[in-house]
From TrEMBL:
Annotated InterPro entries: Glyco_trans_2-like (IPR001173), Nucleotide-diphossugar_trans (IPR029044)
UniProt-listed Gene3D superfamilies: Spore Coat Polysaccharide Biosynthesis Protein SpsA, Chain A
Name the UniProt record assigns to this protein: Glycosyltransferase 2-like domain-containing protein
Signal sequence interval, chain numbering: none
Gene Ontology molecular functions: glycosyltransferase activity
SUPFAM superfamilies in UniProt: Nucleotide-diphospho-sugar transferases (SSF53448)
UniProt key word Glycosyltransferase: yes
Swiss-Prot/TrEMBL keywords: Glycosyltransferase, Transferase
Organism ancestry: Bacteria, Bacillati, Actinomycetota, Coriobacteriia, Coriobacteriales
């Protein structure tokens, strides 16, 4: 049996302190049939030089330079270039765990060559679930940890032919939820998926990272996310209009809760006030807040946060959250997924 070829895509932007460790975690086990593609998205620090040095002795690694367009743009460029049977995405500040390559071979064999393979150490016999079950869990209708592992585009193998057949690409302009949209598109438009009970990916948690900050751009991105989610679900025969609406409403409730947590993570009352004002001045958010109701599918804390936000009490809510966060450790940490 011929060993399946893998293409690893690393989107790179101003990550000079981490990129060499990321690359070495991959090249240490890269097979001759594989390829590593690093797409620099307009770095202004020493990332490019360090990436070049890290792949100097790796014949099947390549560095591509492009103007800044965001992580989705960099990943999409990678999808246009790679030629492996499967493609995997790795963020430049993360790393793959030792044994990732042999684990990938086993997963492909176990799955019978599935179109989407998700690695999850919290495996719960999730292969008994349909694509719709997994998508619903990603949106928030299930508390299954292993099903929710579908949120990230990392720690996954995507069959490249299936990606191109359904035209899946990352939504540029969306800075939160772009991974979920790509995965939902893949799950609802491909023939097979598989959960492998193994961990191959180390995710770095850092204070001040994109997932722990707020901005008006984040609010605009959330509106784009909801519109894209509605389009993708509406195009699927698996979803009727009432269920699409339920998905959008739950996603909006959760987005308000997430925004409150992001404000709280600033631990600064002025920034919390300014961020709250941004939300209430956003016309799309104001309209959605006015007509949306909390849903029983949301977690109680998310429903509570949403109810207070509707009453224009986002500032005291986020400040309360920030007091709780003060007792939380803020140092860098790793999570294996």
């Amino acid at each position: 049996m011929t060993r399946p070829s893998l293409s690893i895509v690393i989107p790179l932007f101003n990550c000079e302190e981490c990129v060499e460790a990321c690359i070495s975690s991959i090249t240490d086990e890269l097979a001759d049939c594989d390829e590593l593609l690093i797409v620099d998205d307009g770095s202004t620090d020493g990332s490019i030089e360090r990436a070049r040095n890290a792949i100097a002795d790796c014949l099947n690694a390549k560095l591509i330079l492009k103007d800044n367009g965001g992580v989705s743009s960099a990943r999409n460029m990678g999808l246009e270039v790679v030629r492996g049977e499967y493609v995997m995405f790795v963020d430049a500040d993360d790393a793959l765990l030792p044994g990732w390559r042999s684990a990938s071979d086993r997963a492909i064999e176990h799955s019978g060559g599935a179109d989407v393979i998700t690695f999850s150490r919290d495996y719960e016999n999730t292969n008994a679930y349909s694509a719709k079950d997994i998508v619903d869990a990603m949106i928030g209708f299930s508390n299954s940890v292993s099903l929710q592992a579908g949120m990230s585009a990392c720690s996954k193998l995507f069959k490249l032919a299936a990606v191109n057949k359904c035209g899946a690409r990352f939504e540029e302009g969306i800075i939160h939820g772009e991974d979920a949209l790509f995965n939902i598109k893949m799950l609802l438009n491909t023939d097979s998926h598989w959960f492998e009970g193994a961990s191959i990916y180390r995710y770095r948690m850092r204070e001040g990272s994109a997932t722990h900050s707020y901005s008006n751009r984040f609010l605009l991105s959330n509106i784009l996310y909801l519109k894209s989610l509605r389009r993708i679900l509406s195009e699927s025969p698996e979803y009727d209009e009432p269920h699409v609406e339920a998905c959008i409403e739950l996603s909006f409730v959760n987005s308000v809760f997430l925004y409150a947590k992001r404000l709280a993570s600033t631990r600064d009352l002025k920034m919390i006030r300014d961020g709250s004002r941004l939300l209430y001045e956003n016309l799309d958010y104001a309209q959605l807040l006015a007509r949306s109701k909390s849903t029983c599918a949301a977690a109680p804390i998310a429903s509570f946060a949403f109810a207070l936000a509707k009453l224009k009490l986002l500032t005291p809510l986020a400040f309360l959250f920030s007091l709780f966060l003060r007792i939380r450790p803020s140092k860098e940490s790793w999570i294996e997924i």
